[in-house]
Amino acid sequence: MAETTLKVVPQADLKNVDPVWTTAAITQNHGYMVYDMLFSMDSKLQPQPQMVDSWKTSDDGLTWSFTLRDGLLFHDGSPVESKDAIASIKRWSVKRADGQALMTRVKEIVAVDAKTFEIRLEKPFGPMLSVLANPTLPLPVMREEEAQTDPNTQVTTIIGSGPFVFDDKAWVPGDRVVYRKFKDYKPRSEPVDGFSGGKVAKVDTVEWIYIPDTNTATQALMSGEVDAYEIPPLDLMPMLKADPNITVKVLDTLGKMGHIRPNHLYPPFNDVRARQALQLLVDQREFLAAQVGNPEFETVCYAVFMCNSALESEAHAEPWMKPNPEKAKELLAAAGYNFKDPIVVMLPTDQQIIYNNILVMVGKLKEIGVNVDAQAMDWSSLTSRRAKTDDPNTDPKVGWHIFPTWWTGVPMSSPLTNAPLVSTGDPKTAWFGWPKDDEIERLRAAFMDAGTKEEQMKIVDALQKRFYEFIPYLNTGQFVTPVAWRNTLKGVPNALLFVAWNIEKTE
Questions:
Q1: How many CB atoms lie within 10 A of CB 412?
Q2: Which H helix or E strand runs over 439?
Q3: What are the C-alpha distances in Å from 465 to residues 274, 320, 414, 454, 471?
Q4: What is the rounded distance in angstroms from the CA atom of residue 434 to the CA atom of residue 429?
Q5: Domains of the chain (ranges plus CATH)?
Q6: 8 Å CB contact between 372 and 365
Q7: Measured distance CA(380)–CA(357) in Å, rounded
Q8: How far is the C-alpha of 272 from the C-alpha of 466, rounded, in Å?
């Protein structure tokens, strides 16, 4: 039987391969290919066991015991054991908002035997399974050797236990990434459902083919040169929908939130007045028109925890919904900004949605007299540079003041998982931009103890109020991005993103 190759145009070029070190979506997608997780979310966003076979909780809620499935192997042939899971949990939790929340309650994590480990708590932690099943910043189980790497240093040896093996010898940054079927992978017996169930590799090879020009990538899909396009350009969506050979589908119905992040460490955006100035330049309708340009896929949303989510609230947002450039200029001046000083803005030229988003902000800044140093680069270069804490005022080629991105709505929709809301100010625990605000941290901690929906919403409203007082980041509008694939593909899982397992390729 001839070998089959699934060819996908990914959303970006893959340069960073450690899904713990970075939150870049392309690296998380890479993580799903190579690694397996202890738990995974089904299509209803309910946690289901993945590598775990069975688990139990003590009556007082302080001890959680987990036993791994039989037959789990890493790609080098070594068995997956408790020590690997424990080291992976500890490393991941340093970099993830919900992992950090969990570790504030953890007394110790210990191996009972080679397949069973316990998480012992100082205080009960109700969302344990949901945290271990984080769907968008998942917990990849690495070998203990790699998982003992400092989480602020990239792992470079990529050996997982998932359904595909990363072929590092065939990887050509800027061109393609290659994955091979792991023939010794033992899938679960349950049918695939979202990210959960049996991950059956039905193709022999998966190739991510990087095509930065969206028109070229769209034509490659329509001609059959590639089989799928992860984030096709929304302005070409009518043409793709009209093609009888192509399926266009929104997999993540909650969607994404456009996002602009200022650097809190250095002037001028270490001053809240400068960040408030940025907020007063945002008209979400304008930003959405540029970054999406199709009302079918757009939602104006000033809710910190997403619109159409369980914790939706626009409390205290109204004063910030209307742009005021004159006031923005006054606030920047009051913050001590000299309008001759360059503001370094990173522009990811190969990410159409984000690129169009930041171009609007660049235009708004220039309109009020800001000296914008707009530096063009590809997305992978941006995701590497945003981790640097150098002062952009003294080293504008290394440091930065502002960068754009988008966040998947699921983690953004809770104080527990909203990573850019973490305001510890510590580059080791806070997300790039490094805000520091004790009140936000106090409210996030209180949310963990909220026992009822009413109590949760009181904290959400308080967080909304503090968010717009402090401005840790800017939301530029909510949107969905359909995935497109040729009808020769069968069995595409109904996960939040396009994953390669269970897909059959027919001719």
A1: 26
A2: helix 438-449
A3: 18, 11, 15, 17, 10
A4: 9
A5: 5-204+483-505 (3.40.190.10), 256-479 (3.10.105.10)
A6: yes
A7: 17
A8: 12
Question: What tokens were used for 110?
Answer: 């210990």
- AA identity, residue 169: K
Instruction: Please give the Cα distance from 116 to 128 (Å, whole number).
Output: 17
Give the C-alpha separation, 95 to 430, whole Å: 8
Query: Where do we find the tokens 């609230």?
Result: 313
The token pair that represents 287 in the structure block: 């930003």
Sign of CA dihedral 217, 218, 224, 228: positive
**Other Cβ atoms closer than 10 A to 473:** 25
Residue with tokens 């145009």: 9
* Cα–Cα dist 50/341, whole Å: 52
- Output the pLDDT for position 1: 60
Q: Which string of b and e fits 362-396 if b means at least 16 CB within 10 Å?
A: bebbeebebebbbbebbbbbbbebbeeebebeeeb
Calpha distance 411→338 (Å, rounded): 37
- Token code pair at residue 333: 């001046």
pTM value is 0.88
Does residue 193 contact residue 42 with C-beta atoms inside 8 Å?
yes
C-alpha angle 104-107-112 in degrees, rounded to nearest 5: 135
One digit per residue, pLDDT tens: the chain, 507 residues? 678 999 999 999 999 999 999 999 999 999 999 999 999 999 998 999 999 999 999 999 999 999 999 999 999 999 999 999 999 999 999 999 999 999 999 999 999 999 999 999 999 998 999 999 999 999 999 999 999 999 999 999 999 999 999 999 999 999 999 999 999 999 999 999 999 999 999 999 999 999 999 999 999 999 999 999 999 998 889 999 999 999 999 999 999 999 999 999 999 999 999 999 999 999 999 999 999 998 989 999 999 999 999 999 999 999 999 999 999 999 999 999 999 999 999 999 999 899 999 999 999 999 999 999 999 999 989 999 999 999 999 999 999 999 999 999 999 999 999 999 999 999 989 999 999 999 999 999 999 888 899 999 999 999 999 999 999 999 999 999 999 999 999 999 999 999 999 999 997
Please name every residue paired with 68 in a beta bridge, in sequence order, or none if there are none: 52
Of 477, 353, 464, nearest to 418 by C-alpha is: 464
Cα–Cα distance between 259 and 493 in angstroms, integer? 28
In one-letter notation, the amino acid at residue 54 is S
Rounded Cα gap, residues 420 and 312, in angstroms: 17
Contact indicator for 8, 498 with CB cutoff of 8 Å = yes
**Which contacts qualify for 330-334: CB closer than 8 Å, 24 or more apart?**
331/273, 331/274, 331/276, 331/277, 331/280, 332/268, 332/273, 332/274, 332/277, 332/368, 332/370, 334/273
Q: For residues 241 and 294, what is the distance between their CA atoms, to the nearest angstrom?
A: 14
- For residues 217 and 6, is the Cβ–Cβ distance under 8 A? no
CA pair distance 486, 229, nearest whole angstrom = 9
